[in-house]
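Researcher: Next sequence.
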Amino acid sequence: MNLIELEKKIVPEIIDILELRYNILRNILYNEPIGRRGLAVKLNMGERTIRTEVNILKEQGLITIGTMGMYVTEEGKNLIDSLDDVVRELRGISELEKALKEILNVKNVIIVPGNADENELVLKDMGKTTSVYMRNLIKDNFILGVTGGTTMARVAEEMPPGKVSENVQVIPARGGLGKDMETQSNSIAARIAKKLDANYKLLHVPDNIDQNTLNALLELQDIKEVIELLDKMNMLVFGIGRADVMAGRRHLSKEQIELLNRREAVGEAFGHYFDINGSEVWNTLTVGITLESFRKIPLVIGVAGGERKAEAIMAVSSLRKDMTIITDEAAANRIIKIVNKATK
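Model: Next structure:
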């Protein structure tokens, strides 16, 4: 029995205290400078409890308190990094990864603690985990494709700056979607390229267009160049969406949404909609990566978190066995429950 297991047996309350202070430190770090009241709201805790815990962390030299709010010290930042692996072990994340990898039947699964549906920091953690994982895989002359969305925007935001390889090209794998520029694939590709000191090209076309417009756009030289690069991608990093949410963002017609419901669509990726078994049930006319080209890309990483995306992750994971899924604890546990219920 290791030290952590012994601590759980003898002083089980120490685990709750450790996780509480770890979460407080992380929330201060991500939101600094932040006041006690703001921290209490973010953690949904009473100000009295926050005041007590903050004073303890200050006495330990892990935070400082100024007129603008609280900051994490260098010692506090180092402690957070050291505690990341401890928290994973406390929550049994490694075993959860093994179980989910077997269920999804994919090459690799990486899980971050928590629930992205309830805690903004979990989405940040997924972004950080994904960006670091990407950096370790990028080689010279790589062509890296990225999609859009809130999760992928976090990946760009959390990407550590610094060149990793020579002659890297970052491209959007899809056309634009929605009005929020921060979550457009073009914006995300540009931000990641700048962080990596890499080159990038943009795909200046809307995501959903009619066939005549599509044919005309494909004749433009700039568009042709990006389309050609899509077929040469070495790595694709993409967000996994819920079918109903993505249908809403694309402003699909009532008839189209009813069709998706009848065909039990639960997941969406790069304009294709899938049922929980990974069978394609519908797709939108789009500029960018196709399902056929997706299956040929050497390295593929799908990212999604939150309990509500469990079915979507299951659907998209069925598309390839040699892909990596990066998700969170809540989605993983939900997937396991769905599978266990189905096998009873």
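Model: The chain has a mean pLDDT of 91. The first strand starts at residue 63 and ends at 65.
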